[in-house]
Design goal:
The complex is a heterodimer of chains A (844) and B (124).
Chain A: H1 13-38, H2 52-64, H3 69-80, H4 87-110, H5 120-133, H6 135-148, H7 157-182, H8 191-212, H9 222-254, H10 265-353, E1 355-361, E2 366-369, H11 371-376, H12 388-392, H13 397-411, E3 417-427, E4 433-444, E5 450-459, H14 461-480, E6 491-498, E7 507-515, E8 521-531, H15 532-552, H16 556-570, E9 575-583, E10 588-594, E11 600-602, E12 608-610, E13 615-616, E14 631-634, E15 640-644, H17 656-668, H18 674-685, E16 694-701, E17 709-714, H19 720-733, H20 738-758, E18 766-774, E19 777-784, H21 795-811, E20 814-820, E21 823-831, H22 835-843
Helix pairs in contact in A: 1-2, 1-3, 2-4, 2-7, 3-4, 4-5, 4-6, 5-7, 5-10, 6-7, 7-9, 7-10, 8-9, 9-10, 14-15, 15-16, 17-18, 19-20, 20-21
Chain B: E1 5-12, E2 15-24, H1 29-39, E3 46-50, E4 54-57, H2 59-74, E5 78-82, H3 88-95, E6 103-105, H4 108-113
Parallel strand pairs in B: 2-3, 2-4, 3-5, 5-6
Antiparallel strand pairs in B: 1-2
The chains are: A alpha+beta (844), B alpha/beta (124).
Chain lengths: 844, 124
């Protein structure tokens, strides 16, 4: 049975279960429909004008395949058994009823029937093959059986056959499209469309019922509504509408209502079947036609859209090609124009660069100069013709002799070569002296005879002048910066100054470190705006002034205020600077900033922050009415402070913010060595060209107590205060009790005062201070290299000396003084224990 | 002024109060002495030198005070020195026996409230 799904060779249990359930489903549906259909019987009880089971059977075979035939056969047998004369008749009828739909389904599949019935050919197939042709089988078998079994006389065979045939065919035509519609994918109509469909179906039903209940023959009124439904919703609407109309008509015929009240059975039959056929045909065909036309229109629209798209693409291609062509034409025009400009530009460039070129045709002794050559020499272009001698006459006598000798030597070499560049002076007619740089190349003939010399001349007067000034300014600047940084115990210092590389860009950057009398350290960095000699000399003045103010004023803001005052009165430039005091003992930093980039503080773990407080306007920028502000910060041991000028962080084309961020990142990766850090920062921050000069000053607080304290100091009273700072800090770092620290500090001070007072007299000398922590005891050693001489006899010194000796012995656990010709060594020891503990130790 | 020590003075009738801030060592003892003596008016009967804010004082400072005491006494004036008990300077005073020759007080109020006339100072 080609075309319908055949028996599989083996069935699994679940397949069997599904198969059985399909059979039961089909059989059940068939049986129920048959019972309903029998109610419409006109002849006997088994000949009905509308036999829905056939429609169900055809659809069942189309959907599930012919394998479900037992369901149809059994149900048909069950339906016919009670209404047939015997079992054999029932079986025969059932066979006919089963065979007819199988044949119908086979034929439909064979002709490519589509279950959507959306083409005219599908409508034709179901009408002629599925219904009229196939149902000849069931009608013939059924009516034949009725006659053979004696249920009806042979004379009634044609009428029974006709009723049977039309009933089965109508069952297929009316029921199958409706059922097939149920198996389509669900309708996605909007609420409005669904409402419209519902109303239409209701209208069809209402009109059908109405016309069947009146004696007037108005059955044709149903047709427009059917047509409307088919037009609006195609098979989806037409199939149920046809089923409704045909069902209602058949029911009316069976009950002899309305149009079916009068007339013979045949008349009723004809009327009913004509009506049903009209309903089925018109709905089927109309729906299929509308679907087909809609599809055709859509296809046409798609084709049109595609065509439009293709035209659009082609147009775009064309316009791209056109644009390219236009561009090429424009480029060619441009190239022509550039070529024409080039010659003019060459002359212009020579003028701009103050470069001239010349050619000397040697055999003819003819020299030609470019226009710029004439200008450089102070003449109008092409003012006079030239020979070699005439050209050299332009040069100052001394240099001219050298040039003649060089050219003579070159001509004698007999080969092509470049002459060494030569610098020479000319004096123009107006008396102006210019410095020129000449370059030349000689070409000789095959016989070695000189043919031609070409060359260029550049006016380098300005750059020579600038170079000289740059050299002076740089020398001046270097001489004004500190030649060495002070050595401060526990404080590492490093500094760099990098002059700008270009001609005259040497600037007014400076830095300074001053040890202040109170033991703190003054640090300054600044930048005088502008470049060259003036900036450098201003910088020198300010540096000295700042040193003086730093020694007088304790507060950084006061120092900055005084420099600000000075700048306002005496300096025409704008200056940025920052001044800080740093107390190595406490780590306290105080600073005031006049418009300078903020210092960078790098903690010992690498955390970085800019000290952005204390900021006032640059010096000389405006009349600063407010006070300079001062802020404090703390520098922990191991932390590094970086002061710098903007040259370090400013680059052309990038913002200073970027430079500051970059410096921060680089500085976070600080090494152990401060000098190496400075080199690293300069190396990474500064690219090939230094456009502005750069000053960099770095300070790091390092722990003192990590090792013994050893200081070598000039034997002068003013070193005592800074020395005390260092000793205090060292004692604190070894965790000495404050009382012990005070004692050691005074004893140490006394021993140092003695060395200063007695060792060298009026001469300069050094003394050494050494503090060691050993086994809970501080050992202080003061060593000088002088000869211990008695004091000059002043009562003051003697009295102090006596008091000092006494203090040392009382404050310390032991004091040993060893004086010899090589100097004096004072050794003192003091336990870190306090109170009673100490007394016990001393007693031992 | 950014100096090692600073001297401030107040005159209350015949009483002169001089406060010394900072540190005294051999680099500045002469200047400090000159500053104190300059602050003492002729009418002064009692001079109180307040060392509460003096953070360092060694033999040079002690010698200075002895010299000052001599000069003050030579002018029939009287000298008191104020050194708080917890001051680092206090120990230097006590260890050198200075309180036996110079009137030493712990609080400036105590020194100023003494009404004994200077010339009757029986310690001298």
């Amino acid at each position: 049975m080609k075309g319908l799904r055949g028996h599989p060779k083996q069935m699994s249990r679940s397949t069997l279960l599904r198969y059985t359930s399909k059979i039961v489903l089909v059989g059940g549906a068939y049986y129920v429909a048959a019972i309903l259909g029998l109610r419409l019987a006109l002849i006997e009880r088994n000949v009905t004008p509308l036999w829905p089971p056939t429609g169900i059977a055809v659809v069942a075979f189309l959907i599930f395949g012919w394998r479900v035939w037992p369901g149809v056969a059994l149900a048909a047998f069950a339906v016919n058994m009670p209404i047939s004369t015997n079992g054999l008749a029932a079986a025969a009828t059932a066979t006919g009823n089963t065979l007819a739909p199988i044949v119908a389904a086979l034929l439909l599949v064979r002709v490519g029937f589509r279950k959507e019935i959306d083409r005219l050919q599908d409508a034709l197939a179901i009408v002629f093959l599925g219904a009229l042709l196939s149902m000849l089988i069931s009608a013939s078998v059924g009516a034949g059986t009725l006659v053979l079994s004696g249920a009806i006389p042979a004379s009634k065979f044609p009428a029974a056959w006709a009723v049977w045939w039309t009933g089965d065919a109508m069952g297929v035509l009316v029921v199958a499209p409706f059922l097939l519609g149920l198996f389509q994918r669900p309708w996605s109509g909007s609420l409005r469309e669904r409402t419209e469909a519902g109303v239409l179906l209701l209208l069809v039903a209402t009109v059908s019922v109405l016309v069947m209940n009146t004696d007037l023959r108005l059955m044709f009124l149903v047709i427009p509504f059917l047509g409307w439904t088919a037009w609006r919703f195609q098979q989806r609407g037409a199939a149920p509408a046809a089923l409704l109309a045909a069902g209602i008509a058949s029911w009316a015929a069976a009950h002899g209502l309305g149009p079916f009240q009068q007339g013979t059975l045949l008349e009723k039959m004809i009327t009913l079947q004509a009506f049903n056929a009209t309903v089925a045909f018109s709905s089927l065909f109309f729906a299929a036609l509308v679907t087909e036309r809609t599809r055709a229109r859509e296809a046409l629209e798609r084709a049109a859209a595609e065509l439009e798209d293709r035209v659009g693409r082609r147009t775009a291609d064309l316009s791209t090609a056109n644009a390219r062509l236009k561009h090429e034409i424009a480029e060619r025009h441009d190239a022509d124009r550039k070529l024409r400009q080039r010659e003019g530009q060459l002359a212009e460039v020579q003028q701009q660069a103050q470069v001239g070129n010349w050619e000397w045709v040697i055999p003819e002794d003819r020299v030609s100069w470019s226009d710029e050559m004439y200008r450089i020499h102070g003449h109008l272009p092409k003012a006079f013709p030239l020979t070699f001698e005439k050209a050299v006459e332009q040069v100052e006598e001394e240099d001219a002799a050298r040039i003649r000798a060089n050219v003579q030597a070159a001509l004698g070499r007999g080969r092509d070569h470049d002459l060494p560049p030569s610098e020479y002076r000319i004096v123009r007619a107006d008396g102006a002296e210019r410095v020129l740089l000449g370059k030349a190349r000689l070409s000789v003939g095959s016989d070695g005879q000189p043919l031609r010399m070409i060359g260029t001349v550049k006016d380098i007067t300005e750059s020579k002048k600038a170079e000289r000034e740059h050299r002076i300014a740089e020398t001046l600047q270097r001489s004004l910066l500190p030649d060495r940084l002070p050595e401060i115990p526990g404080v590492m210092l490093a500094a760099r100054y990098l002059p700008a590389t270009s001609d005259i860009e040497v600037g007014g950057d400076w830095y300074d470190v001053v040890q202040l009398p109170n033991g703190t350290v003054g640090l300054a960095i600044g930048d005088v705006a502008g470049h060259g000699l003036r900036a450098a000399s201003t910088m020198g003045q300010l540096r000295m002034a700042l040193r003086a103010y730093a020694l007088e004023e304790e507060s950084p803001s006061q120092v900055v205020s005084r420099v600000r005052h000075l700048v306002r009165l005496l300096v025409p430039d704008i200056v940025t600077m920052i001044y800080l005091t740093f107390d190595p003992e406490s780590g306290t930093l105080r600073f005031a900033n006049a418009g300078h980039p903020p210092p960078l503080l790098v903690g010992w773990k690498g955390e970085t922050s800019y000290l952005e407080g204390g900021l006032g306007p640059p010096l000389g920028a405006t009349t600063h009415l407010g006070q300079d502000i001062e802020v404090a910060a703390h520098v922990d041991a191991g932390s590094t402070l970086l002061l710098f000028t903007d040259g370090l962080v400013e680059r052309r084309g990038t913002s200073i913010r970027d430079g500051l961020t970059r410096l921060k990142t680089l500085a976070a990766d600080r090494g152990e060595d401060l000098e190496a850090l400075c080199d690293h920062l300069l190396g990474s921050m500064v690219t090939s060209q230094v456009s502005d000069d750069i000053a960099l000053l770095a300070l790091r607080q390092v722990p003192l107590a990590a090792e013994p304290l050893l200081l070598r100091l000039p034997a002068e009273p003013h070193v005592l205060a800074p020395l005390r700072h260092t000793v205090r800090r060292w004692l604190r770092e070894i965790d000495a009790d404050p009382r012990v620290a005070d004692d050691v500090l005074i004893a140490c001070g006394e021993a140092c005062a003695n060395a200063i007072q007695h060792a060298y007299g009026a001469k300069d000398g050094l003394f050494e201070v050494n503090l060691v922590l050993s086994d809970g005891t501080v050992e202080v050693t003061i060593r000088d290299l002088g000869s211990w001489r008695p004091s000059s006899g002043s009562g003051r010194a003697e009295r102090r000396g006596g008091l000092g000796q006494r203090l040392m012995r009382e404050l310390m656990d032991s004091v040993d003084v060893n004086s010899g010709p090589g100097g004096t060594v004072v050794r003192m020891r003091r336990s870190l224990q306090v109170g009673a503990d100490r007394e016990r130790t001393r007693a031992r | 002024m950014n100096e090692l020590a600073r001297v401030e003075s107040e005159q209350h009738g015949s009483l002169c109060l001089v406060r010394v801030y900072g540190e005294i060592d051999m680099s500045n003892d002469r200047e400090v002495l000159t500053a104190i003596e300059g602050a003492v008016a002729r009418k002064t009967v009692r001079l109180v030198v307040d060392l509460t804010h003096t953070t360092y004082l060694d033999s040079a400072g002690l010698a200075l005070l002895l010299r000052l005491a001599e000069r003050i006494q030579a002018r029939q004036q009287r000298l008191s020195v104020v050194v708080p008990v917890d001051s680092p300077v206090r120990r230097a005073f006590e260890l050198t026996g200075l309180p036996s020759v110079i009137d030493l007080e712990s609080r400036s109020e105590d020194a100023m409230n003494q009404t004994r006339p200077g010339y009757s100072n029986d310690q001298v």
